[in-house]
Amino acid sequence: MKKYEYKVITVPTAFAVSTQAYEKTAREFETQLNELGAEGWELVQRMDGFFFFKRESN
């Protein structure tokens, strides 16, 4: 039987009004998602600023 572990992260849902600040936040979030993917985490759901990930446990 496969076993999983889970991780929940939050992402700010209120962004600064400037395009530059919005783009910076998007780049930071993209970096965080890529780091989680490299660690084996898989995004399974997003809801109200929460992002739920899972990965197979050893």
Overview of this protein structure:
The chain is of the alpha+beta class and 58 residues long. The chain has one domain (4-56). The chain has 1 helix and 3 strands. It has one helix spanning 19-38, and strands spanning 4-10, 42-47, 50-56. A 3-stranded antiparallel β-sheet has the order 1-3-2, with no helix packed on it. The longest helix is centred in the middle third of the chain and has 20 residues, at 19-38. The protein is elongated, with a radius of gyration of 14 Å.
Oligomer: single chain
Termini distance? 11 Å
Helix-strand sequence: EHEE
- Secondary-structure class: alpha+beta
Strand order of the largest sheet: 1-3-2
What is the averaged pLDDT score?
A: 88
| Separate helix tally | 1
Helix content: 25-40%
Low-confidence stretches: none
Number of distinct beta strands: 3
Q: For the CA atoms, what is the radius of gyration?
A: 14 Å
Proportion of beta-strand residues: 25-35%
Envelope shape:
elongated
Report on the biggest sheet. 3 strands, antiparallel
Task: Describe the secondary structure blueprint for this structure.
Layout: E1 4-10, H1 19-38, E2 42-47, E3 50-56
Antiparallel strand pairs: 1-3, 2-3
